[in-house]
Amino acid sequence: MHPVSVRVDNLTKRFSETVALDDITFHVGKGELFGFIGPDGAGKTTLFRILTTLLLPDRGTCTVEGCDVVKDYKRIRNMSGYMPGRFSLYQDLTVEENLNFFATIFGTTVHENYDLIKDIYQQIEPFKDRKAGKLSGGMKQKLALSCALIHKPEILFLDEPTTGVDAVSRLEFWEMLKRLKEAGITILVSTPYMDEASLCDRVALMQNGRIMSISTPLEVIRNYPLTLYSVKAGDIYQLLGELRNYPGVHSVYAFGQSAHVAFKGPANQADLAAWLKAKNHQSVEITPIEANIEDCFMELMTA
């Protein structure tokens, strides 16, 4: 087991009557790429703001590289890189001016740590004189990551870094994270995208301020307890409604133009197909499938 980089024990945070984080406990190993997966409102941003010393916890203890988030906040800020979910750089400064500004804040220079950001920054360097507010979503993302890395942090906190970014830029971004992990940087990343979970070493599935599961992506899928089928027919909306009334069905969710139908045990595909055809569904296709991360998450939400 790697040395612990982040340790959180019994962390609770409230905003008036709203419980944003509800007695959560976890640890992240040094050099690990650890993902927090969950919808908006799950508590991911509140957690990241506490770990980066921007919010105080109500209860519990949190340490980053052995430093307490309350008592040692200055040390944590110097050793951490933080990329918030909303683009927060100076939009009226150019790409180059933003990068130099953040380097100066941490008492370093772009030249001194250029090797660390080289692979990322070279992609936006041709636009170094463009104001940050005029960049595309993917370019803003690369600039924000460069600014978070310029002081050579030991640990990175990335709060939904790919939200609102096109699919190609998302893929490029995760390739960058893989290279940073190989350089020994501990990375905590939150995302609402279930497909990104498979790119992490371990994932915490979050809902309503609670952690429902922590394990490797492979273990999450292996622990799925149901028998799953993909069902296609002409009218997906009518299909969803009627499948929920089929005897023995545990759950039904839409996935694109098909429905994922879960049973607690094996189902007779021929009987199901005949039942759907009797209800005037055309071109019925029923295929046994393996669960994905999203199927597992949906099951945990209703367990």
Give a quick set of tags describing it.
four-stranded antiparallel sheet, alpha/beta, Alpha-Beta Plaits, six-stranded mixed sheet, globular, 32% helix, 2 domains, 303 residues
Concise structural overview:
The chain is built from ten helices and 14 strands. It has 303 residues and is an alpha/beta fold.
Description:
With 303 residues, the protein is an alpha/beta fold. 32% of the residues lie in helices and 29% in strands. The strands form 3 sheets. Strands 6-7-8-3-9-10 form a 6-stranded mixed β-sheet, with helices on both faces. It has a 4-stranded antiparallel β-sheet with strand order 2-1-4-5, covered by helices on one side.
Average pLDDT, rounded to a whole number, is: 92
Task: Give the end-to-end Cα distance, rounded to a whole number of Å.
Answer: 30 Å
Domain module count: 2
According to CATH, what is the topology of the largest domain? Answer: Rossmann fold
Helical proportion?
Answer: 25-40%
Q: Examine the secondary-structure arrangement and name the CATH architecture of the largest domain.
A: 3-Layer(aba) Sandwich
Strand order of the largest sheet: 6-7-8-3-9-10
CATH superfamily of the largest domain: P-loop containing nucleotide triphosphate hydrolases
Q: Which residue ranges are poorly predicted, with pLDDT under 50 across at least 5 consecutive positions?
A: none
